Amino acid sequence: MSNVVTITGVKKLYKMGSEIVAALNGVDLKIDSGEFVALMGPSGSGKSTLMNILGCLDRPTEGSYKLLDKEVSRLSDDELAGIRNKTIGFCYQNFNLLSKLTSLENVELPAIYAGFNKTERRKMAMAALEKVSLADRAEHLPSELSGGQRQRVAIARAIAMKPAIILADEPTGNLDTKSTVEILQIFRDLHAGGSTIILVTHEPDVAQSADRQILVKDGKITKDIITASTDERIDII
Amino acid sequence: MLFTELLKMAGLSLVANKLRTILTMLGIIIGVSAVIALVSVGMGVRKNVTDSISRLGSNLLMVMSGSSNRGGVRGGAGSVQTLTYDDAKAIKSKIKDVAYVSPTAQGSYQVVYGHENWSTTVTGVIPEYAAIQSLTMQSGIFFSEHDVDVRSRVAVIGTTVATNLFGSVNPVGKKIRVGNAPYTVIGLIASKGQSSVGQDQDDVVLIPLTTAQERLMGITYVRSINVQVADADKMDEVQANIEKLLRQRHRIRAGADDDFNVRNLTSLMETMNETTTMITLLLGSIAGISLIVGGIGIMNIMMVSVTERTREIGIRKAIGATYNSIMMQFLIESTMISILGGIIGIFLGIGLAQAISKFGNFTTVISGESIIASFGFSLFVGVFFGMLPARKAAKLDPIDALRYE
Ligand SMILES: Nc1ncnc2c1ncn2[C@@H]1O[C@H](COP(=O)(O)OP(=O)(O)O)[C@@H](O)[C@H]1O
Ligand SMILES: [Mg+2]
Hints:
Largest sheet of chain A: 6 strands, mixed
Order of helices and strands of chain B: HHEHEEHEHEHEEEHEHEHHHHH
Mean pLDDT of chain A: 90
Mean pLDDT of chain B: 87
CATH architecture of chain A: 3-Layer(aba) Sandwich
Helix content of chain B: 55-70%
Distance between the termini of chain A: 34 Å
Number of strands of chain B: 10
Number of domains of chain A: 1
Oligomer: heterodimer
Structural class of chain A: alpha/beta
CATH class of chain A: Alpha Beta
Largest interface: A-B, 26 and 23 residues
Helix content of chain A: 25-40%
Strand content of chain A: 25-35%
Strand order of the largest sheet of chain B: 2-3-8-5-7-6
Distance between the termini of chain B: 32 Å
Strand order of the largest sheet of chain A: 6-7-8-3-9-10
Structural class of chain B: alpha+beta
Bound molecules: adenosine-5'-diphosphate, magnesium ion
CATH superfamily of chain A: P-loop containing nucleotide triphosphate hydrolases
Order of helices and strands of chain A: EEEHEEHEHHHEHEHEE
Radius of gyration of chain B: 33 Å
Shape of chain A: globular
Number of strands of chain A: 10
Radius of gyration of chain A: 18 Å
């Protein structure tokens, strides 16, 4: 399998007054195509920072990030926007849907910025909504949907452009147990379909859905285990 | 493709926030309508002035008694009565390129017919007056040179006088009394209607100049001599010749001031046109300032709107919106506001101008230039003042924007 993500020696430093805080302090990480990875770690350990760099929302202060064999750590804002548009799908804890747009319109958005015409967009968006079993809610506004349904719309938006990786930052953090199970099942299904998924969570049960668990602590990867074939798991204290 | 989508996005956002959109537009609406209405007032003043001068006739020189006011404080024009009918005759006979010469004497009199009476202006003229003023007769005739020579007691009256004295009866052949002497009405002038300054041009009684001077007013001078020059290019030459001739006739020594003055109505009109154009421009620019204020209003509201929609911007950027597409989205919003406000302002401005002319009894002239200029300026204002908020939106860091609550 080919590497989708290759991160070497990545640091993210923030200046806080006279002090320098290292949100990431030398991270090396390789993720293959089709992997389902859970990123774990205590609060403030650097998970979101790593996700932002993986998602091309941010650039590392030091180190290299190769996405699909292309160095992206030094690209311009607009080049990164283009990569986010075509190569990356995001899901957030708070869904981040546009409240005035229907499910379908929300899912269409990435394709609008990619310049697809209306018919193409509709087709792509409907296909994505069908994958999350929400085709019947296409014309609903987010406010008319349950939390689980909103997250499914967000997932549909993330997969609409058939991205190389799907990044989910605490996607079940705001959901009840039943919805959590549903959402995790969707990720399993996507994974079975060949998608590369990186999911941030601090809940071991959620991380269990993934095949590989990575522990981040103080801006470094301290543990990286394949859990698909073992009973091993990472518990965060 | 993306552009039409951005247009749609901007439009939807304006529709979704109707009240805010309208309030933001208000400044532009007021600005554009103020420009159009005020400029129409200025242009109306200009038209009044132009009309009332050109109504006197084209290529006209006006000779008045009294010195012109160059050289310090003098009596106003007409305060020294030195012009005579003979001066007028001399101008006509001795100066080249003169088409018509029309001396006049004027006074206010009570005109009586039977039990009816009417106060009006009685003007003593010679037949050339009718030519310069292009008077046409509704019935009867204008008096002749002979009437002037023999000081006939005949009168030609306007329709206002006729209506007030005679009702619907044809006045021709009737006798009216002016200053206790009877005059035979020999002609009724076809109506000229109101002048642009609201003066009734039909409220006139015309009698032969000599009759007016000697039999009615008891004077030897004339109030003014209007000279129509045959050729527009000869105005200055004729003016100089008239001045020379009158100085000779009035025996004014070299170096002494004239006891008359000659005004060139064409150049007067040009000066007035310049002045009124200045006034119009001034009015327009004052109103234009309100457009700038309107633009600042757009900027303020758009700034607030960008802050409010920080999260939306973050989401759009996360899923691939570039700097330009965010910039365009907001710029289109502010431009749409100014275009829409501009269009509403145009209609409101035209309405205002019409209301002013209707209820204010004031001539207004709606000019296409003011509509185009104010609309163009409002468009510019929308783009210009939309720039800052749009850039603020486009520059937002997606991570910060997504974290914004
Ligand atoms: N923009 C920033 N400026 C300064 N410090 C930051 C910034 N973003 C994150 N950090 C710091 O980096 C560390 C890691 O943050 P984060 O990646 O959000 O952690 P997690 O998502 O694992 O809770 C924290 O100590 C946080 O305070
Ligand atoms: Mg976090």
